[in-house]
Amino acid sequence: MSEFILNLTPQLYEYLLKSSLREPEILKKLRAQTRTMSTHKMQISPEQGQFMQLLVQLLGARKTLEIGVFTGYSTLAVASALPSYGKVIACDINVEWTTIAKRFWEEAGVLHKIDLRLGNALDTLQLLLDQGEANTFDFVFIDADKKNYSAYYEKSFQLTRPGGLIAIDNVLWAGDVADPAINDINTVMIRQLNEQLLVDERIRLSMLPLGDGLTLALKC
Ligand code: SAH
Ligand code: CA
């Protein structure tokens, strides 16, 4: 086994982007607009967006769920990769941010694929379960408040079809999860979910050091 672990320096990261990123103009524009906001770091990176598009295409996904929209970059990436009859049920509580999102979805011509559900995502997920939508989603992206990560995962698991994929963002939490001295609520909850996933035999598991860490859980 190679003991060497690649360190993605800024120079190498630039190279990676230059050599592989195919970001459409509208996504680029949304990223530039979001960069002007103090909260811009919540947005996924463009190569992660491109990777999620690839996942959606591999799965042949039609029906997807997103928990945590912000200004809509990940939603737009996924929606663009879906067929015209595909759907994203997109959950967020913030009106201001999702208003920006809707503007860009409309300009991109994918608004018809996106069903924005404003409110506490846990309630939205429970409503979907109550409405009989268990086992129907091809792809779920979890990226909202970290304190509810375990609850989001459990409900997402129920909503995902066998063979469907759950992607969970920020699982490396800027490295904090690996530092036992850091025990704030967000770090603890992400660490807890990571531990829980490792022994969850209902899934196939892979944790990728992409962006801030992305876990893939394939429902068996
Ligand atoms: N996926 C987005 C980033 C999401 S940031 C992107 O790539 O751009 C996290 C989002 O979770 C924020 O927009 C926040 O409003 C939302 N959020 C936080 N708590 C929530 C809750 N309880 N229910 C629904 N959304 C929530
Ligand atoms: Ca995130």
Structure notes:
The chain has one domain: Vaccinia Virus protein VP39 (Rossmann fold). The chain is 43% helix and 20% strand. It has eight helices and seven strands, in the order αααβαβαβαβαβαββ. The protein has a seven-stranded mixed β-sheet with strand order 3-2-1-4-5-7-6, sandwiched between helices. Helix 5 (95-108) links the parallel strand 2 and strand 3. Helix 3 packs parallel to helix 4 (73-81) and helix 6 (121-130) packs parallel to helix 7. The longest helix is centred in the N-terminal third of the chain and has 14 residues, at 46-59. The chain starts with 9 loop residues before the first helix and ends with a strand. It binds S-adenosyl-L-homocysteine (SAH) and calcium ion (CA). The site of calcium ion has 5 residues, from loops.
